[in-house]
Design goal:
The chain is an alpha+beta fold and 71 residues long. It has one domain (2-70). 62% of the residues lie in helices and 15% in strands. It has a three-stranded antiparallel sheet. Strand 2 and strand 3 form a beta hairpin. The longest helix has 24 residues, at 35-58. The relative contact order is 0.07. The mean pLDDT is 76.
Length: 71
């Protein structure tokens, strides 16, 4: 039984994605069977990341020209 568990752990380390019913998760992005579902599955995560980045940029002191140059 322990060899089966060790084999599963080794496979998970070698292959960096998980398979669900309708999606494959690869590096944090859910790849769906249908293209139309891709946006729906990944929208919440993307929006959260954008909001966090926006909040971090607000705290940076400097002029607007300086902020534009950073981008």
């Amino acid at each position: 039984m322990s060899t089966v568990n060790n084999l599963k752990k080794e496979i998970k380390q070698v292959i960096p994605f998980t398979v669900g019913k309708n999606t494959i998760k690869y590096f944090g992005i859910k790849l769906t069977k249908e293209v139309k579902d891709f946006y729906i599955e990944n929208c919440k995560t993307l929006m959260k990341e954008m909001e966090m980045n926006h909040k971090e940029e607000k705290n940076i002191s400097g002029s607007w020209i300086g902020r534009i140059n950073m981008v």
